[in-house]
Amino acid sequence: MKLTKTLLASTALTVAGASAFADGHMANEMTIVSWGGAYSKSQQLAYHDPYMEKTGVSIINDESSAEAVSKLRAMNEAGNVTWDVVDVVAADALRLCDEGLAMEIDADEVLANGDDGSTATEDFGELLVGDCFIPQIVYSTTFGYRTDMVGDTPPTDVCAVFDTETYPGKRALEKRSINNMEWALICDGVAKDEVYDVLETEEGQQQALDKLATIKDDVIWWSAGADTPQLLADGEIVMGSTYNGRLFSVIEEQNQPVAMLWDAQIFDLDGWIIPTGLSPERQARALDYVRFATDTQRLADQAKYISYGPARKSSAPLVGQHAELGIEMAPHMPTDPENAKNTFLYNYEFWADYRDDIEAKFQAWLAQ
Amino acid sequence: MTDRSAAETTGPDQFIGATPDNALRNAERADAGPVLAADGTPLKKSLNRALRLSKLRALMLIAPLLIFVVVTFIAPIADMLFRSVENNIVADTLPRTIAALDDWDETTGNPPDNATFEALYKDMYRAVEAKAHTRLGSRLNYELTGMSSLFRKSGRKVEDMGEVFQDQFEDLDGFWKDGENWNALMGTDSWLAAMEGWDTSDKKGQPPFEMRDGLAAMLPQTATAFQDYAQFIQRVDEKNLARQDPWALVYSALYNDLTSGADVSGYTGPAVAELQAAAAAVDGFETVDYRAAFVDIDEDWADPEVWKTVRLYGPNLTNGYFLNAVDMQKTPQGVEMRPENQQIYITLFWRTLVMSLAITGMCILLGYPVAWLLANLPARSANLLMILVLLPFWTSLLVRTSAWKVMLQQQGVVNDTLVWYHSTAVGKILDPVVTLLMNVVIGALNAVVWIWNLLSGIWGAVDVELFTYAALGFERLALINNVTGTIIAMTHILLPFMILPLYSVMATIPPVYLRAAKSMGATNWTAFWRVYFPQSVPGIGAGSILVFILAIGYYITPEIVGGTKGVFISNRIAYHISSSLNWGLAAALGSILLAAVLLLYWAYDRIVGIDNVKLGG
Q1: What is the predicted ipTM?
Q2: CB spacing of B148 vs A353 below 8 angstroms
C-alpha cells in the first residue's frame, strides 16, 4: 500500500502544481518581457530593483521580446495571457495595437507628469505613436566600422557601405527590409524626403533591391543585435549596422578599434505595452509599474547603464555619467546634436502599410 | 472441477493450474450449464468483470501518459496542421460582402455594384471596431500584393464614411445625438430598468442589452446594427452602454430603413414623434455613394482583381497555403506558378533534402571508423573514446555551434592556421612544389583532352587554367555563412547519433568471423567487405534514419552558420511563425515536410526493411 500512497501523494502534488501554474501568477508576481543582455540589465538596475524594493512585488524576467507579437497572438488565441508588461519596438506595438492585442493607453491618465511639471503628452511629445505604446527610449540603428581596416580615409558617409572599392571587405546588414531599403535608395541618389514616396512603388522597391544586389556577395546578414559587435570585434567585417547601444559597448566597454558612423542613423523607439485580457488586478499592477518605470528620474537612470536616449524631454538634463565607466553619457546618445546632423526617422505609418509587401519581396530576393 | 486432473488441460492451456482462462475453458468443457460463482452469477460473467477491471486498471496506469501525449503533442500538432487549410477569416470578417459578391459577374471587367460596396462598408465598419481588418489585409496580401495597405488605409477612413447620415439626423433633432435616447428607443423596458439598478462598480455585471419587441420587424437594419453595437460595447469593450453614443453605422442603417419604406405610422413606442419626423425628413437627406467613397480612399477598390481575390478566398477552407508552399498561386484564371522572383520554396525543399543527405553521408564516412574502433579497441581505450563521443551530448547545442563560428570564420582558427602555414618555412618550400605538381597534373589532363579532341577531329587549343592558391581563394577560405558551414557544423553535431547505433550493432559482431574469413584465404578487404560490412548494415540504417530525420528539421545551426544559402526549409517555417506571422503558410510547409519524412520512411522500409534496423543487440 506504500506504493499506492506514494502514487496518490505525487499525483496530488502534480495536480496542485499544475493548478498553481495554470493560475499563472502568485499573488505578488509579475512577468516582464524584454530583450535580454545589457538592455535587460539596465532595466533591472534602473526600474525593476527600485520597484521591487518599493512595492514588494517580485518581477520575473522573460527575454522573448523578439517574438513578442507571435507569442502574444498565440496566448490571446489560447485565452491565457501570462505576460504583464512587454517591451517592444514601436512598430511591433502598432501591430499589436492594430490587432487589439495591446491595451489602449491614455497617456496623461496613465503616465506620471514630468519633473518639470509638464504633462506626459507634452513631455513625450511626438514619440507617443499609436494608441497603445508607452515610449521608453530612443535608439538608433547605425553603422560602426573598424578603424584599422579603412586606411587613412575613415568613412563619413553612409554610402561607404555600398562602396566596396574604397572599403573592401564584408559588411553586416540586418536580415530584413526595414532600414536597408531606405539606405539603398539614399545611396542610389534618391533625396531623403522622397525615399518613402519612391519606396511605395514597385519600381522603387526594385530600385532598392538592385542597389542592395551590388553588395549582396559582400554582406553577412544578421538577425541578433549581438552579431555585428561580434563580427566587428573579430575583424570579420569592415563595417556593419546595429543598435547604437551595442556599438557603445564594443567601443567603450571592450575597447575594440571600432568607431561610429552616425551618418543617416535611423531613429526608432522602444517602450512598453500592456497586453489585453489581463485580470483587473494584474492590469492595475501593470499600470502601476509602467507609471513608476517611465517617470523622469527612472528614464534618466537607465541612461547610466546603456547609451540609449530617454524618451522624456524632462529626463535629458538628468542624464549623467556611466555607472561603471564614469564617462559622460550625453555625447554617446543618438540624439546628441553632434551625432544627429543627418538622421532619419522610422516612418511607422509607411511600414505598417507596406511591411507585408516589401518584406515578402526582400526575403524572396535574399533566398535566391 | 476438482475431479479434473491438471494434465487434462490441452490446446491453448499452456499454463497448468487454476488460471482464470483454464477455469473458463474447463467450465465450457463441463457442458453442464453455466458454472456459478460463489455469489450466484455465472462464472463467465464474473470472470469477465474481473478481467475488465484489471484491463481498466492497466489503462488507468498509462492514462496520465496517454493524456499527456494527446494534450501536449498530438492535439497541438493537429491544430497547427489544420491551419494550413483553414481560411475562416475572410468569411468571418466580410460576411455581407461575400454574400453580395455572389451576384457579381466578374467577366464584365467592372467592379461590383453599389450594393456590394455598401455591404463592404457595413463589414469594414464592424471589422475596424473589432480590430480585425488589419489581419484580414495581411491574409489577403499573401495572395495579392497591396491588399494589406489597402485594408489599413480604408480602415482608417471608413469610420468617417457614414458620418453624413449621423450629422443629418443630429441636425434634424438633437434627440439623435444622445446614446441614452437611443437606448430608450431600442431597449426593452425591463432592460432599461435593470440598467438603472446596475451597480457600475461591478464591471462584469452589466445587464445584457435586450431589443424591444417589434423593432426588428419595423427597422430591420437598424435593429441589427444597434444589436451589434450594443453587444460590442458591453462584451468586448466592457464599457457602460448608457454612456456611449451609437456608431455611425447605426445612423446609416436607420437612413436605409426609413428610405426603403419602413412603416412607422403605426408605431406607438417611445420617441414616436422623433421617429416620425425623421421618416418624413429622410427623403431630403444627402446620401453617400459608397463606391465613390471607397475608390476615393484608394483607387485599387475599382480594380476587379481586388474583388476577384476577395471572392476567391471567401470559402472557409483553402488550398492557397499549400499552393504557396510549392511556389504556386490560385488566381482567378486558375492555378499558376508564382512570378520567378517569388519562387523560393521548391528550391528550399530540394536544398534541405540534398543537404540532409550530404550530412548523413558525411556522418557515415566519419562515424563508421570511429564506431569500429570503439567496438574493437580494448575496454580501457574504448571507454575513453566513448567519453569523447558523448562529450558533445553534454555541451549545449548553441555553444557547439558558436564554437564552429569561431573555428570557421574568415579570421577564425582554421583560416589563421592556413595563413600561418603559408608563411612558415615549410609552407614556403611546399607551396611552389604543390603548385608545380598540381599544374603538371592539370597539364597532363589537358593533354589527354587535346589528344581526344584531335582524334575526334576537333583541332584547337584547350583552355588551360593553371592552379594557383589565389585562384582557390586560399588566402582566406569562405567556410561559414554558406552551405559548407552548415554541412560541417551539422555533421559534427549529429555525428554521435550515427556512431552510437553503429557501435551497438558492431559490438555484437563476433571478431572470430573476420579471423575465420582470413584463415580461409580472404584478403583484409574481402574479409571486411564480404563478412563484416554486411553485418554492420543494420547499424548504418538506424544511424542514417536518425541523422537524416534530425537533419531535415534542423533549425538553429543553419540559422547561425548558414548565411542565406545554407539555410533549411525549417528556417523559413520559423520565419513565418515568429516574424511574418503567416501561420497558414508555415503550417503548410510543415505538413509537406512531415509528409516527405513519412514518405521517405516508407520508401526506406520497402527498400531496406525496417526490421533490418537495429539500435542495439
Answers
A1: 0.86
A2: yes
